[in-house]
Amino acid sequence: MRMDAEKDGVARLSTGADDDRITPIGRFIRKYRIDELPQLINILKGDMSIVGPRPERPEIAALYEKELPEFALRLRAKAGLTGFAQVYGKYNTSPYYKLLLDLMYIAKPSIFMDLRIIFATVRVLFSPESTEGVASGQTTALVNLEEFRKGEEEE
Predict the structure, then answer these.
(1) In what helix (H) or strand (E) does residue 80 lie, and over which residues does it extend?
(2) CA distances, 19 to each of 14, 35, 97, 126 (Å)
(3) What is the Cα–Cα distance from 48 to 55, expressed in whole angstroms?
């Protein structure tokens, strides 16, 4: 990312291919998921596991928790490099659905499920749509949560 990517002080998710904060080298690094390699150090240190709820940036997690206090329940399990929400959701999946997916994993952890998620992760690595960003002008995926709630009220 550019040095002044968030000079306005607002933490935001990537908007994907059109994100002007990402340098050409950064696009290459993200495209081939090289930016994930440092997480292996966290796994070796024991701070993370291979499979578990993927951590959000603290600033973004705090925003999600204001709208959806239950979002903090994801912290009941050790953070992971990959997880149920990463395999069955996308980068721009709403906080509500990330929470549901992660709670499904937390409720019934097993070696079998971990292996299934690891193998599914390999498939996702080669799927460009899994890294779709949020809409241009959006800073988080909260719009999806608002739309979800609006849809529930209409039913």
Answers:
(1) strand 80-82
(2) 6, 16, 24, 20
(3) 10
**Ramachandran angles phi, psi of 80, nearest 5°:** -130, 160
Domain ranges of the chain: 16-154
Token digits of residue 55: 């951590």
Q: Could you give the CA distance from residue 15 to residue 121 in angstroms, rounded to a whole number?
A: 22
Tokens (6 digits) for 43: 């796994």
Q: Decide: pTM greater than 0.85.
A: no
The partner residues of 82 in beta bridges, in order of sequence, read: 51
Dump pLDDT digits (tens) for 93-117. 788 888 999 999 999 889 999 999 9
Which are the contacts of 89, defined by CB distance < 8 A and separation ≥ 6? 97, 98, 101
Quote the Cα angle for 35-60-42, to 5°. 40
AA letter at 138: Q
- Tokens matching residue 14: 């990537």
The alpha carbons of the chain give a radius of gyration, in whole angstroms, of: 16
H or E stretch including 50? strand 49-51
* 8 A C-beta contact, residue 103 and residue 75: no
Bridge-based pairing state of the strands 80-82 and 49-51:
parallel
